[in-house]
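Morning!

This is the sequence you dropped in the shared folder:
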Amino acid sequence: MLLAVGCTQSPSDAPLWVLDVPAADAGLQFRLPTFSVPYAHEEQSCYFVRVPDLAGGQDFWVDRVRMATSVGTHHLSVFRVRTIVGLDPAAGEPVKIGPYDATVVYGHDDYANNPCWESANWADWPLVANTQSPLRQGPYTDWQLPDGVAMRFTPGEMLMIQAHYVNTSVQPTPMDAEVGINLYRTSLPDPIELGTLFATQQSIRICQSNPEPTFTGTCRLPSAVTITAANGHFHSRGRELSMYVWDGASTDHPPAADQFYDTVYWDSPPMTTGIERPVPPGGGVWWDCAYEWRPPMAGCDALNAKDPEQAGDCCYVFGGTTDLGEHCNIFVYYYPKLATDVFCN
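The structure's back. Tokens below.
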């Protein structure tokens, strides 16, 4: 009965998962090394691995992604590595991701100094896939792309797998953290290529003097596309995150009929698939993040020290660990892929 209404699970109820390794001709699996997260700490690390050669040196296509995470996942995101700024794969420690050689930059909870916490370091890295905590949906995110649509992968290209786990009273990690990602190949000879949009609204301030703010972001797409899947991300002050098709010009809020995503669950926002909403030429995406201020567990002095405006108003601002920072991020998947990757940060 408790599980049916979505209450937080106890350690004995935490779901276990099994993710079979695809046959060599069917796909591949990236499985991160198991790690622990001490209580009152967070672990955000960036793993770098090259795409293996599955097609005799040729590009291959993937039309299904299946991800599994244990309880405590704050987010799991996969990006394609582009411009190296402060987060360098070569500076990481050697590690194995399943059978593949890789490196890892351990971030732990050192958000102020570690490059795995600084989003500017992957500002032009295209999104591949993402998911979050399995508390309500179970441990799996299983995404079958629309018929005729697939992701392209090139042997040797570098991917970054970023895993963020939290172990606090608000979001517990009751056992060792486990992460697995399966990519399944398609036999379609000439699929439509999937494109992705990763966007953040970084001008957020949830303050004691303004305890219930809503912040808006917009992102234009240079030509017409169809949105097929979406996910959102914020922290525990988040009350609701909504996304809408936007005409690309209006400053008026889009009507309710144009909404294609909504969540009130900060700890386990759903990955919504099968959306199939067209975006007109020159249009894009509009999103809202609504919050409710709460006293920080670490105390207002810790928030004030982090506030770049030094306003002394006990404000949660963008970034940082979950107890001291907030997010307003969206992940949108569409087709056909555009000539240039889309970022709005």
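Headline: The helical segments are 300-306.

More detail when I'm at my desk.
O.
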